[in-house]
Amino acid sequence: MAWFWESMVITVDAFHAAKMLGYACKILILVFSICMRIVTVGGVWFVEMVLLSPQGFLGNDASRRRRARNSRWQSSWA
Questions:
Q1: pLDDT over 80 (residue 2)
Q2: Which of 40, 59, 41, 37 lies closest to 50 in space, CA to CA?
Q3: pLDDT of residue 13
Q4: Which residue spans traverse the membrane (predicted)?
């Protein structure tokens, strides 16, 4: 009868380990989803505020081209 109780202890330990592994996986998924949300929001902010703003990289280049095109058009009528 001792082997029965020893096998039950092993079964309970395995079940406990599987439950803990499940909790660890849930925590990792939660942390990963929070990090991805931060990356997504930060990426959208970076594109809108830095790249597309008039002082940013792309916005500055586009406004410079627009000013150059307007000055050429105005000088052709002068």
A1: no
A2: 59
A3: 81
A4: 20-47
